[in-house]
Amino acid sequence: MSTFPHLRQDFLASIVVFLVAVPLCVGVAVASGVPAELGLVTGIVGGLVTGLMPGSSLQVSGPAAGLTVIVFEAVGEFGVGALGVIVLMAGLLQLAMGCLRIGRWFRAISVSVVEGMLCGIGLVIIAGQIYAAAGLDAPATGLGKITGLPGAFADAVSGTGEAVSLLVGAGTVAVVVLWRKAPKAVRSVPGALAAVVLATAATAAFELPVATVRVEGLLGVVQPPGAEAFGELAGPAVWGTVVAFALIASAESLFSAAAVDRLHDGPRTQYDKEMVAQGAGNTVCGLLGALPMTAVIVRSSANVAAGARTKASRVLHGVWLLLFAAAMPWALALIPIPALAGILVHAGWKLIPFRQIASLWRGHRGEALILVVTAVSIVAVNMFEGVLIGLGLAVAKTAWEASHLRTEVVDKGAGPVQVHLAGNATFLRLPKILDSLESLPRDRPVELDLSGLHHLDHACRTALEHWAERHSATGTEPVKVTAAGKETAAGA
């Protein structure tokens, strides 16, 4: 026991994480438009491959609701056969970024963009899974899913089968939400698992007319990408999806790592090593034709809360997933699809950062605007372009704030006109600077004080020199420029 001093705590934690992971792995796979077993394969790889590698000791990896939307879009555009090669290339890109020590730079991504990304994903997941809960076909676009909800509800109410299916999904959400108020002994069973088991039992007992998970067998769904799938790499469209997979999976994993670090007092995450671990896991998932993986905050927080002390808990959870997938695949065929849809509706709801939006709106409305624009862009356009829009807006906001400049003109009516510039003089503020200078009297000497500037870029410096030459050429005294305690005459 001295070799594994925390084996008991890690063993018990691994059971809890396994029970949390099963319904989520299956639900994410079904929502992504791929066989349910592929979700379990990704969970197994997350435990046995990523779980063994250094990086973050307590966070757990597997298929995530946050990638559901983009995976569904990729499967719809390129087919299930191409999914493996896309995930493989994304994994190799993550490996490269980790080896180049880019992992730590993901901490520099605007939190508002990440929260907006999760919010947009959550909205699309909720809308899409409501259709799945009712047994209806969802529109292809995120905006179409949301605008079509009133009609979907009308169709569900008018049809007996759809209404029953929707009730099973709604009942699943209710069980998950209310499970937290159950006695402590009962809450030892994860709410998502309890909801799925109860929905499965009710569907079987009352012979409800709802669709259940289609099972193909573990070996039947594991299909390494072939030559045809690699042929997709010749087209530029697939590379956008590869980059999106890699960047979004990396951002979600590393932000999850930061959150998990706040939950325990153990070793801190080594971001570059964690990036390599995620890349290795996704590379293996790609070779098996499985779903992409990220670190998942729900499973990770459950791991910490259950008392895990080392990485042994997440590795063991991968072992239990493997045994379940190999020995009990028949159990998947009993699970009603609306129950899985309900689990994902709840997961999507938890992705929407209601408190953060309210807090940002009170103190940082610019950041709140970035969050909302990112979320709306993801819903209205797509995942990748929505995130790019959010990043672009964050960069523009930062550039604007970084170029904050205060211009003060002191004119006493006689003698030289004094102009004081303070802050950051960049090309973004150049029009304002020149407007102020060119409005000065041309027949009066000017003293230009630049000592209050923290930064003066080349464009502004050149423009100020040219203005000083023009102003001095009118016959007035040369413009006196003061910068960092030095006084010079320009245009003499």
From TrEMBL:
Its main location: membrane. It comes from the Bacteria. It is found in: Membrane. Keywords: Membrane, Transmembrane, Transmembrane helix. Coiled coil: none annotated. The chain crosses the membrane at residues 12-31, 38-58, 78-100, 112-136, 156-179, 191-213, 233-260, 319-349, 369-396. Residues 471-492 are annotated as: Disordered. Residues 7-374 form the SLC26A/SulP transporter domain. It is a multi-pass membrane protein. The keyword Membrane applies. PANTHER family: SULFATE TRANSPORTER. This is SulP family inorganic anion transporter. It comes from Streptomyces chilikensis.
